[in-house]
Amino acid sequence: MRYHSTRDENEKLNASAAIIKGIATDGGLYIPEIIPEFTGVELEKLMRLDYMSIAEKVFGKFLEEFSSKEISEIVSAAYKSSFDSEEIAPLHIADDKTAYLELWHGPTCAFKDVALSALPHLMKYSAEKCDVDSEICILVATSGDTGKAALEGFADVKGTSILVFYPEKGVSEMQRLQMATQKGENVGVCAIKGNFDDAQTGVKQIFSDEELSSFLSSKDVMLSSANSINWGRLLPQIVYYFSAYRDFVKANLISFGDKLNFVVPTGNFGNILAGWYAGMMGLPIGKLICASNKNNVLTDFFVSGKYNKNRQFYCTDSPSMDILVSSNLERLLYELSRSSEDVSLLMLSLSKEGEYEISDALHAKLLEKFFADFSDDDECREEIKRVWDNDKYLIDTHTAVASSVLRKYRINSGDNIPACIVSTASPYKFSGSVLAALSKANNEMSEFDKMKQLSKLTNTQIPKPLLGILDNELRFTDTAEISGMKAELLRFLGINEQE
Ligand SMILES: *Cc1c(COP(=O)(O)O)cnc(C)c1O
Fold first, then answer.
1. Residue 24's pLDDT is what?
2. How far is the CA of 400 from the centre of ligand 1 (A)?
């Protein structure tokens, strides 16, 4: 199986090269040439497997040049001991047609763990296959969740190192502590004096610095990226759509073959796109419901066929979805149009004008499978309280967006078939906002005290990885100027400045 860019069908490479490169030279994203399918019999067999075995089957379909032994080693390194639930992605059943898929049982309590536990190992094996024997150094600019999950995934993985930049004032106290206490010999964390965009721009500049890249390669170092445009991050996310469907069947909420709707709290469009791929592989999915917060650029796009990022940016209670350019949408546009020429034009218009409009035909195709809506912070607070009062089940602010959108969708559309709400973070990762939804919040309290208060109020347990942070050693407290990011990288790598 070969992969190519969404902006050029001619440059073809295999999975390992696509994973190592991350993004195509033309700025496009890699996609598989064809989408592999499970036959009815294969699908029925999948329903009897555990999570890791399903992962092996799904990975196997996309990673042709990997042996089944290699795939099984990757899956086991990713999931065997780092999740606090044996099921990896357990289902919480709310009623006879609704359940929450909990994707936050990994080491950092957010769904990014599912992909970032696997990516380092996918990269390590890919590097071997591509005869890359230099050290792969992962550079990350993060607004919080991705940085920690990537650190945890790459920590002490041989042949790799990872350096994370975050905006000094742009992450929550919990997120800062999570990163500053990261363990591992090959990790580095540095705050920068600037916002997330500055960090992101600084990292992109380092990536496109050709002089630096050839200098580093003379020192046997190659830079790579762990953000969600890498195919190696999308692939592991396809797996839990299958395991969720299996669990709906097991719980008798559906029969095998019935359609199941999925509601996904969406930012960069990676998670929901993985669901679309699962559907194309043969999983009986009804609608994929794209749930946004007040930054509802995707809702407007699905309704009108026009994407327009020229709008106000809001900071919401669901910060991991505060995003105006959803990169992975490009993959869907290609898959539905199969035209790299059209996609290139749309993306050019996006970068030049900040907007684009798709054809009526493409718009109609999108709406066959997708529905989109949004909920603001007030609606989400109500939803957190409603779910807690009715069900004594605690959901985080991102999950609340999906949960709230599903309720509106059911009322407005009359489509009442069973639905899976994709739950992307532990409520304790956003204790302050969750607590404020349930009781009068005291803003003087530290994030830790809010966490304890939330636990007391709901009689639920604080996840171990968050509780342990207070006891861990503070390792990374440096702050750099934006102009000093490159020097920071060289120092991290232990390389002297270029002559
Ligand atoms: C990243 C993230 C999202 C958004 O996922 P996308 O794949 O970017 O659409 C939603 N919720 C949480 C908690 C996240 O960390």
1. 86
2. 13
